[in-house]
Automatic annotation (TrEMBL), chain A:
Repeat listed as a keyword: yes
Domain of life: Eukaryota
Domain VWFA: from-to ranges: 5-189
Pfam families: UIM, VWA_2
Protein name, as recorded: 26S proteasome non-ATPase regulatory subunit 4 homolog
PANTHER family in UniProt: 26S PROTEASOME NON-ATPASE REGULATORY SUBUNIT 4
Compositional bias segments (type: Basic and acidic residues): 240-261, 389-402
Matching SUPFAM superfamilies: vWA-like
A single Gene Ontology CC term: proteasome regulatory particle, base subcomplex
UniProtKB/TrEMBL annotation, chain B:
Organism annotation: Deinandra increscens subsp. villosa
PROSITE patterns: PITH
Family classification: Belongs to the PITHD1 family.
PANTHER family: AD039 HT014 THIOREDOXIN FAMILY TRP26 (PTHR12175), PITH DOMAIN-CONTAINING PROTEIN 1 (PTHR12175:SF1)
Descriptive protein name: PITH domain-containing protein
Amino acid sequence: MVLEATMICIDNSEWMRNGDYSPTRFQAQADAVNLICGAKTQSNPENTVGVLTMAGKGVRVLVTPTSDLGKILACMHGLEIGGEMNLAAGIQVAQLALKHRQNKKQQQRIIVFAGGPVKYDKKVLEMIGKKLKKNSVALDVVNFGEEDEEKTEKLEALVAAVNNNDSSHIVHVPAGSNALSDVLLSTPIFTGDGEGGSGFAAAAAAAAAGGVSGFDFGVDPNLDPELALALRVSMEEERARQEAAAKKAADDSSKQDKEGESTSQDATMSENAATSASESENKKDDLMDDENALLQQALAMSMDDPAATVTTRDTDMSEAAADDQDLALALQLSVQEGGKDQSGETDMGKLLSDQSFMSSVLASLPGVDPNDPSVKDLLASMQNQPEVSPKKDEDKPKEEDK
Amino acid sequence: MACLHDHSCEDHDCSSDWSLYKHIDIPKVSALNEAVPGSVKAVFKAWEQRLSSSEGLLESNEGDPELIVYIPFTSDVKIKSISIVGGADGTSPNKMRAFINREGIDFSDAQSMQAVQEWDLAENLQGVLEYQTRYSRFQGVGNLTLHFPDSYGGDTSRIQYIGLKGEATQLKRDVVATIVYELMPNPSDHKTKSESGGGMSHVE
């Protein structure tokens, strides 16, 4: 809950077009910036955040430190990529912007996203670092994008020069399947100098990890009741997952029999722990639930199953009700996409893999028509958009079902 | 501008003179370019403890003897003189510049702004030197900022004690927080003593 004024320096140089961070470096950076802004403003309502770009035609301040999150998010739109990142000028302008903050009681912090190469000398950067330290400005550096030993060395030297009592940090994010924002969630940049994390960071980190955070399910009813619900669900899932693992092995052989029950799923779900049919029914029923995550998990579960059972599942499907064609299609789609996207999936998706949990959730739901084709289509498309808010998806099938 | 303390302290109580430290808002004291964050609070103490470094001293970062000390007061004060005890081996500051009632002064501001008063300091390890202020300029001081640009040749600057002599008023220089304007005066809000029955005269 430190009272802080933060300036975020964005790199919008040509090097940000690269797609080694999905979808592009620039987009990953923008997501991370949005997350940081949210975390800062939530941890203390009087915190202010400002944004500036370091490349393009020159260093440009997009928004001066403000506590209005909407303004910050709006200014991130329509940013153009081009030019070369000017680290020294960017930091100096950020320092100037912080100097003229309205509330002098706020601590000063600069967060730099360094994607492109750094053309300044180590000496110059160290001088800048010393000046920041002298004026008690903290600096966080996110080293991503171009990987260069020299660049890493320079940035490390810069942060070492600024660091006063562990208030400044540097994070190296290599390219890979993890989203930039997910990696940052667990770093001190979010958790704020080891205070134990703001509620936002803790809750978000818990959601990403699919497990229990430092708090009891993040911040339960205070900040986000829906998120709390989702987290509680994931806890149950974790427990149930253990049983499901053992059950699954046994149930695989009896898949054929369980297919026949697909029409009477609503009442008897709890018994069919590991059937692919119940899994798919669960997927649809889960749309009624608040947890989009559960859905994703079911789809993921169908992906997790060994490839051999995919065909059996498909054939099993055809034995059941008429629209199982769509069901099979949905499953196939989800399996294919799952193979591609699995690494990119958030861990919330893995929650859905737990079939026993799915069944228990299903048992508690009112009657849902699982054979609605629109519901199934939605299912298939959901695999592509795990980020789509669950409410929107649920509202649509709810209306269609009724 | 400095006077020597060449009498024994039994005649008059020196510590009561240097008691302005009691009116300093210690938690809000801050310094720029200090090596250990928060060490600046240790330099404001009673006159008798001015030479003891049991609670630590204020030291600047390696290789940079510049220091800025921001001192807010709990009420407005009038400062008559200032005493500084520095460190040995050339780590005493050799110059002092004062600014009053300005918050958030950093090094670039301090270097460019005109100070209210500047002094050349001597190495004052025993704490017997005091530097008088132009009293008329130091009336109604809500906060004081001291800028020490350089030291006597040392790599860092060390300050062991900062003493302030003067008077404290009971006033507090503050931003007016709430003002209620009356668009239409309501007489019942402004009962005089006689109307509310508290007065001595009572006419029947």
